[in-house]
Amino acid sequence: MKITSTGDKKKRWSISKIFTYILLFMGSLLSLFPFYWMFVIATNQTHVVNKMPPAMLPGKELVKNFQNVLSNIDFFKALLNSFIVSTTVTLSVLFLCSLAGYAFAKLRFRGKNLLFAFILVTMMIPPQLGLIPSYVIITKLGWLNDLKAVIVPGMVSAFGIFWMRQYIKESVPDELIEAAKIDGCSHFRIYWNVVVPLLLPAFATLGIITYMGVWNDFMWPLVVLKDSSMHTIQVAIRSLNDTYVRDYGMVMSGTFWSTVPLIIIFLIFNKFFIDSLTKGAIKS
């Protein structure tokens, strides 16, 4: 029988740990490089992009390129529109999906499993299939060129209901629900006073995913928002490509500044996001 010494185990463990850190470091570089390259282009003139080898260091044209953005589109108005749409949709999704998730996780009613299965099936349908019917409905309602056309269809999501249902089912003890019922609480009061305080990590995760998805949405706002004063930031940046001579520095400058709010939001809620994803990974 071969006996492995403690020194050999520590050596193998150290090599394995170093190799893991190297892989993580390389993965981080690959993930961050597109953002860095976007910033490099945003700080240089267009001809620098076509140089061989390409420039890898930031230039001095960030302010000038952003001034070109402001002269071509109403950047801050588009940014405000995106903020209104993303914030409204995210708050609505957090409230409605958590409410539905609580019902599916803790309440008993006829047809619950069938209805939840139907919600899961809707997640498999490509959103492009609903583009024309949704456009017809929005037109009939007279919501074209109105932010309601972008806000209302996204106020609840199948993924949000699924996410909240799973989180509540695993993280909210049935004993708390029963104790609240004994105290005479209504279902909504149980949801608001007992369940909601326990959902901060789930709220942060779903909120970040929803906010980023709505902020980066391009196809639907492009279809229903024709007036430039109603454009969200992604549609407004797209119009920067309509010029005959494409200024990549200007386009990337607009893209860079439109990404900054998302980075700030992620940094603020990063801790809750990680807590939610790792919850249940370590069991006592």
UniProtKB/TrEMBL annotation:
<feature type="transmembrane region" description="Helical">
    <location>
        <begin position="189"/>
        <end position="214"/>
    </location>
</feature>
<feature type="transmembrane region" description="Helical">
    <location>
        <begin position="78"/>
        <end position="102"/>
    </location>
</feature>
<keyword id="KW-1003">Cell membrane</keyword>
<dbReference type="InterPro" id="IPR035906">
    <property type="entry name" value="MetI-like_sf"/>
</dbReference>
<protein>
    <submittedName>
        <fullName>Carbohydrate ABC transporter permease</fullName>
    </submittedName>
</protein>
<dbReference type="Pfam" id="PF00528">
    <property type="entry name" value="BPD_transp_1"/>
</dbReference>
<feature type="transmembrane region" description="Helical">
    <location>
        <begin position="248"/>
        <end position="269"/>
    </location>
</feature>
<keyword id="KW-0812">Transmembrane</keyword>
<keyword id="KW-0472">Membrane</keyword>
<comment type="similarity">
    <text>Belongs to the binding-protein-dependent transport system permease family.</text>
</comment>
<feature type="transmembrane region" description="Helical">
    <location>
        <begin position="21"/>
        <end position="42"/>
    </location>
</feature>
<feature type="transmembrane region" description="Helical">
    <location>
        <begin position="150"/>
        <end position="168"/>
    </location>
</feature>
<dbReference type="GO" id="GO:0005886">
    <property type="term" value="C:plasma membrane"/>
</dbReference>
<dbReference type="GO" id="GO:0055085">
    <property type="term" value="P:transmembrane transport"/>
</dbReference>
<feature type="transmembrane region" description="Helical">
    <location>
        <begin position="114"/>
        <end position="138"/>
    </location>
</feature>
<keyword id="KW-1133">Transmembrane helix</keyword>
<dbReference type="InterPro" id="IPR000515">
    <property type="entry name" value="MetI-like"/>
</dbReference>
<feature type="domain" description="ABC transmembrane type-1">
    <location>
        <begin position="79"/>
        <end position="269"/>
    </location>
</feature>
<keyword id="KW-0813">Transport</keyword>
